[in-house]
Amino acid sequence: MLRTIPGCISPDLIYALMSMGHGDEIVLADADFPAVSHSRRLIRADGVDVATLLEAILPLFPLDSFVDKPVITMDCSEWGDEPESYSRFREIIKKHDDNFTGFELEKRIDLYDRAVDAFAVVVTSEADGNVILKKGPVMM
After folding, report:
1. 96 is catalytic
2. Burial label, 140 (beta-carbon count in 10 A; 0-12, 13-18, 19+)
3. How far apart are CA 137 and CA 33, in angstroms?
4. Is 128 assigned a catalytic role?
5. Closest CA to 8 of 59, 62, 54, 53
6. Residues 24, 46, 64, 117: which is the catalytic one?
7. Contact at 8 Å (CB) between 36 and 123?
């Protein structure tokens, strides 16, 4: 444990966040995400939901300002309304990033394919909702 680093950020997760470079992506995946077959680096965050991880990660993690939409979620329009979790994710992201204008939406299979190229996939206990964060440069 470290001061000011939330306990839900495991040693493996803090290592991944510190190792990522500008433009790298990290997936915060729900419990149903096929993470084992769609990741290069798998990190478990059992008992934690995506919203909690967003609250913990975003004070430490700059979103990429070089792209229009550095936060990617699954396009659920073919199944109906978006998951309720998306509104919570929006609130949290807006609180930590003044430039946030909304999600880039990916079809399910495209999101899975994108996860394969991500720096890491973090599997949570979230019931419904996946988020990909694209890292921006750390401005000193």
Report:
1. no
2. exposed
3. 28
4. no
5. 53
6. 64
7. no
Give the model confidence (pLDDT) of 81-127 as tens digits: 888 999 999 999 999 999 999 999 999 999 999 999 999 999 999 99
Residues 6+ apart with CB under 8 A from 67: 134
Q: Which of 22, 68, 110, 113 is catalytic?
A: 22
Rounded Cα gap, residues 13 and 82, in angstroms: 27
DSSP 19-73: H--TT-EEEEE-TTS-TGGG-SSEEEETT--HHHHHHHHTTT--B-TTSS--EEE
22: annotated active-site residue: yes
Please choose, from the candidates 138, 94, 133, 109, the residue with its C-alpha nearest in 3D space to the C-alpha of residue 13: 133
Q: What percent of the chain has pLDDT over 90?
A: 89
Superfamily for the 22-134 domain: RbsD-like domain (3.40.1650.10)
Residues for the chain: how many in total?
A: 140
Q: Of residues 30, 38, 49, 112, which has the active-site annotation? A: 112
The DSSP code for 82 is P
